[in-house]
Amino acid sequence: MFGSIDPALLLAALMVNSVPIMLAATGELVTEKAGVLNLGVEGMMIMGAMCGFATAVVTGSPLLGFLGGALGALALSLVFGVLTQLLLTNQVATGLALTLFGLGLSSLIGQGYVGIKPPATGKLDLGPLAEIPFLGRALFAHDWMVYVSILLVAGVWWMLTHSRAGLILRAVGESHEAAHALGYKVTRIRFLAILFGGAMAGLGGAYISLVRVPQWTDGITAGAGWIALAIVVFASWRPWRVLAGAYLFGGVTVLQLNLQAAGSAIPVQYLSMAPYLITILVLVIMSSGRGKAALNAPACLGQNFHASR
Amino acid sequence: MTELLRVEGLTKAYPGVVANSDVSFAISEGEVHALLGENGAGKSTLVKMIYGLVRPDSGSMTLRGQPYQPAKPAEARRAGVAMVFQHFSLFEALNVAENVALGMENPPPMRELASRIRAVSEEYGLPLDPARMVGDLSAGERQRVEIIRCLLQDPKLLIMDEPTSVLTPQEVDILFKTLRQISGEGTAILYISHKLEEIRALCDEATILRRGKVVATCIPREQTAREMAELMVGTVLTPPARSGRAKGAVALEVQGLSVASPIPFGTALKEVSFAVRKGEVLGIAGVAGNGQDELLLALSGELKSAPGAVRIDGAEMGNKGPNDRRRAGLVAAPEKRLGHAAAPDMSLVENALLSGVVRRGLAHRGFIDWAAAEAFAREIVQTFDVRTPGVHVAARALSGGNLQKFVVGRELSQSPSVIVINQPTWGVDAAAAAAIRQAILDRAAAGAAVVVISQDLDELLEIADDFAALNGGRLSPTRPVEGLTVDEIGLMMGGTHGMEVAHHGH
After folding, report:
1. Selection from A225, A184, A233 nearest residue A207 by Cα
2. pLDDT at position B245, please?
3. What is the rounded average pLDDT of the residues A41-47?
């Protein structure tokens, strides 16, 4: 049944497929580590997809396109930041509204861009590495954004575990009262985390419209933002697990598409369901195995902070 | 001794309340200076100004002869001022070293920091493992983290905001030894507390605040605790009067009560037996975590047991829930005010209703009688002198002491026949504590059977007729308070049990 599927191509497709979710989830991880629950990932991703697409088409440069995507989503996250951090609105409701707003706004801006092809994002030339049999085709023949996304995960991991900035960020998410008492600017730090989360979601969204699809249609993110949110939780807020979760989800998605194309005996509906089910199942098992992992959630997640005195 | 810090004419007003008005005092190097006052006297605001968390409206401070105006805590720390907070400013999911690093201006790399933490903790007799998660530490150990965080920065002035309120007597001894060592090295300590005996034992000088103003300065060793309490409150305190009460029939009987603890890391109750007669007060002592919370849950009905294990007026109640027990005449006030005794975001009226609905008949055929509920809340506020803008404010908005008066008053106002209270005066100032104790004695005089669980031995000796101690979930035999010596109490509390934590590493 797997006979007609080329493992090297499968691995290659998996890496490309996972990038948007990985980027968005990494950004959301940083936001949540600071204690902010932003449910607007889907809305920010699609704004990133739209703005990235438009910028790339207008300027002809994919690099500027990604930048534009990040900025577009960052602008939307700025709205979220002002509402939740300065005006102290409910984070859950604001996040949901942000998603609806992002979907609508992107659709409006995107009217004139349907059916256009964006400039191609170049493959990164890794020279001799790409010549290695099997691995070369599977791992080293991708566009540069694939590698950037992995570097970003590594960078976030290093920042959170090894740097003072990361320690302060975690402290703010753990107990905003205590952090405030020690003199840390809770609201400012959370604002920066929200903006980072927005920019990362925007990069993820832009990757969908510029590389993976690549074109613009309404609702192009198709729920990727929600998967990113789920992966953050089930990865128990650990960057490398987010990467693993994104690859797992991307892998099963690619596999089931291949199986469908190969005319598998399993009904299509079950195959389409598979990525969601398997990802959640595996990550649940991973996070329930040890008692400690479940405790990794930031204690102040979703709680607003107001310095009373 | 040379002068370290001088505070002159500090004033800070918040909308509707002047927290500090023209406060002046001075601390010398190596001096242990007490800041005394009731809840809301302005002690916390004052130290927050010294630590740079709050900016004064007017007034000036000088530190070692230099003008001192910290705009933020980081500046205060740089100037050599460190603070140990009342509610610990710690992060449970981070380890000891990370917590220490967060409180420092320029922390060294983690590995070096860990070895410095070990060195300092050994030097001051406060053993601590830098790699442990703070969430796993006891209250005493958490405080060590805070103190060591301060000591690592070589402070000139150490501010301690009610450091002993969460400690066992043994941990208090260790803390005092450490503080004496620190002050002996020339560091001044500004010590805030309600506990007058502690201040007499530790402090060189005391500044007493009342309603934001300095009302007196004294040398604590030369005053009695009573004199200081009266300076603090501004009126003459009357100790609770115990009238000769007639003891009636047994109202609450507990027989072989054994239940597992629903609290993580809690202590199971093992074969607890006692009986309280009408008009009698039973005091139950013990170091925190020896089954006090579980005993309250088992008596209030939140934790069910075998039917015969708990009897109220002879009726089997062990398998009945809280409302059935309330109907039978038992009321209970737990230790944790916010989240257990009161719902933080609900109004005082709603909170009064929640526990009073059964015995006060505040609902008819499933409909709430809001007028009666409000009247009940007003009655509690008036009778127990709860300071609040009104009965429709959220429970969260009340200060700890005022909320304690409210939740204790709410239970006592239901004409109960059995009263169970855990830590009735925890975090409450002297005047309010005296009022609460008097109210408890009044109910006993009216014929109620009372069980008071407390870690404050003085309180128990003051109000209880009989005395027992919880130790590892077992209750000692009950003894009359009269004629009981401190040594006997120590033995009942189990000697060394539960104190290994405080002593390990010595």
Report:
1. A225
2. 63
3. 96
- Final residue before a domain boundary, out of B233, B263, B292: B233
Which of A90, A162, A174, A188 is the best substitution to test chain B (most B C-beta atoms within 10 A)? A174
Per-residue pLDDT tens for A184-193? 899 999 999 9
Judgement on whether residues B361 and B415 belong to the same structural domain of the protein: yes
Across the interface, whether the CB atoms of B93 and A295 are under 8 A apart is answered yes
Residues from B in contact with A at Cβ < 8 Å: 14, 45, 48, 52-54, 72-74, 85, 87-94, 98, 101-103, 107, 135
Give the domain range for residue B216. Answer: 3-233
| Pair (B135, B65) in one structural domain | yes
- Burial classification of residue A27, based on how many CB atoms lie within 10 Å of its CB (0-12 exposed, 13-18 middle, 19 or more buried): buried
The mean per-residue pLDDT over the stretch A3-15 comes to: 81
Residue B321 has which token pair? 């829930």
Mean pLDDT for the stretch of residues B322-332: 92
Distance from CA of B20 to the nearest CA of A (A): 14
* Spans of all domains in chain A: 7-125+138-294
- Tokens 């004695």 label which residue? B441
Percent helix, percent strand, percent coil in chain B, to nearest 5? 35, 25, 40
Contact A296 B73 (CB under 8 A): no
Taking only the tens place, the pLDDT of each residue in B172-200 is 788 888 899 989 998 999 998 877 778 88
**B39 falls within a domain:** yes
Mean pLDDT of B107-123: 89
The whole-chain average pLDDT of chain B stands at 85
CATH topology of domain A7-125+138-294: ABC transporter involved in vitamin B12 uptake, BtuC (1.10.3470)
Is B90's CB within 8 Å of A175's CB? yes
Cα separation, B42 vs A212, in Å, equals: 62
The number of domains in chain B is 2
ipTM of the complex: 0.80
Instruction: Kindly determine whether residue B102 and residue A179, on different chains, have CB atoms separated by under 8 Å.
Output: yes
Q: Report the CATH number at residue B158.
A: 3.40.50.300
Tell me, yes or no, whether B476 and B344 share the same domain.
Answer: yes
* Residue of A183, A298, A299 lying closest to B72 (CB–CB): A183
Tokens of B120: 């300092």
